[in-house]
Amino acid sequence: MDNKMALVPYDDSAVWGLQKFHKSSSVYHFANHTIQIKQNWKQLGVAAVVWDAAVVLCTYLEMGSIDLQGRSVIELGAGTGLLGIVATLLGAHVTITDREAALEFLESNVQANLPPDLQPRAVVKELTWGRNLGNFSPGKFDFILGADIIYLEDTFADLLQTLEHLCSEHTVILLSCRIRYERDQNFLEMLKGPFSVREVHYDPSKDVRVFKAQRSIHKEDF
């Protein structure tokens, strides 16, 4: 698989405003903080812009139905880092991951938006799905977060393998996405093999859904 696949723009409806992605930065307000996120569409494509799914998942976390205080969290395909930054501000210890090519950009956003006393709680680390998973302890994380990471069908098997490696019986996966194509729904069906999956939040203004997944042993809790 091409290492740069997730770092190039992909086809989406121009009417929902690609112009905002070409801004050099975007400002957000979460967890009583103003967060200014640098964007770099021209160099890094989809990895370097804030997608609506990240904003919706940040909003869902801030609503308080999930308690992140003191919890161990990993974000997959972090891109700009907004979601991992917000999770850290909400009290979690967060491993913020993406491919090697996006790390320097990701690290700059994390450092610029976390107060010095919180920076030790956020670690930026390389993770290419399906590769070198031994660098990450199985079952270490309480939560796995992913915002708009379901869009390249060629990555689905590697993503599923990565989720299975990282999850223990207690790990909760939260994925936010806009269901654009049949392939997006296909991944959710793949996910329902090893995991119990349900929708826990929907933002109609952005047409973004948040799904919760846990190992199928917890089916009775869903």
Folded structure, characterized:
The longest helix has 11 residues. The strands form two sheets. Strands 5-4-3-6-7-9-8 form a seven-stranded mixed sheet, with helices on one face. Strand 3, helix 3 and strand 4 form a beta-alpha-beta unit. The chain is globular, with a radius of gyration of 16 Å. With 222 residues, it is an alpha/beta fold.
How far is the first residue's CA from the last residue's CA?
A: 35 Å
Radius of gyration: 16 Å
Largest sheet: 7 strands, mixed
**Main β-sheet, spatial strand arrangement:** 5-4-3-6-7-9-8
Report the structural category.
alpha/beta
Helix content: 10-25%
Give the helix tally: 6
Short description:
The protein has 222 residues and is of the alpha/beta class. It contains 6 helices and 9 strands; from the N terminus they run ββααβαβαββαβαββ. The radius of gyration is 16 Å and the shape is globular.
Task: Set out the fold topology.
Elements: E1 25-30, E2 33-38, H1 41-44, H2 52-62, E3 72-76, H3 82-89, E4 93-98, H4 103-113, E5 122-126, E6 143-147, H5 156-166, E7 172-177, H6 182-191, E8 195-203, E9 208-215
Parallel strand pairs: 3-4, 3-6, 4-5, 6-7
Antiparallel strand pairs: 1-2, 7-9, 8-9
Helix pairs in contact: 2-3
